[in-house]
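W.,

You were right to be curious about this one. When I first looked at the sequence I had no strong expectations either way, so I just let the prediction run and decided to look at it fresh. Below is the sequence, 248 residues in total, followed by the output.
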Amino acid sequence: MLAQLGQSIDGFIASRTGDAEYVTGDADREHLHRLRALVDAVVVGAATVAADDARLTVRAVPGDNPVRVVLDPRGVLPQDTATLTDGAAATLWVVGPEVEVPDGLADHVEVVRWEDDGPMAPHQVLDLLAARGLTRVLVEGGGRLVSAFVEAGAVDRLFLTTAPVLIGDGVPGLRVGGTDRLADALRPAARRWVLGEDVVTEFVLRDGAPEGGATGRGVTSRPPLRSVGHVPAEDEQVHVVDPDPQGA
């Protein structure tokens, strides 16, 4: 399972008014579309979709659109949002037990009623998708959702892009549980590279990611997860972060 998040260098994904256009640059957005083209489903929170009217499709690179999975426990997704109206890709709208769903939704939208009143736990969400044959999943926002999947140990690879901008106060990006000692902090194997003015860090959080096979939409030709994302050119400098550094 993959996760992606773009944030300022001081850790915010939007200003305090919610403005997020755009934290990272064009090259990072192309990279995000490439990730979408490699998965069966892309998972986002309803508040993120509502704020940006995100289409969650593949437009910058060749490839098929993933199934769009919108987690909406409180029913905040506007009825005129692109994910519910554009017909560009299948949309799975996952709502809480008390949410009133309007009649006459477009044919590309399937409503799934979450049975519990509590939060939509990451592993339960993945089980729900796996039952539909959607096994290659990308979680891309917002910050609380990506953080929850990382905290739950559900993410194989995290692509965290940092932009050279200081927002100062705003919507937080990645947040994980703190530790009293730096020696106990999460320090996974990682590599990083430059995309335009931004820097992407790819964290390997779990081993044993699936290496191909059929997907829930009958596609068998998607690349293995080891080839996900940007592949640096031969003359491009790639910095590999030692997961167990010695010294400062």
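Here's what jumped out at me. Residues 26-37 form the longest helix (12 residues). And, maybe more interesting for your project: Helices lie at 26-37, 46-52, 82-85, 122-130, 143-151.

Coffee later to discuss?

I.
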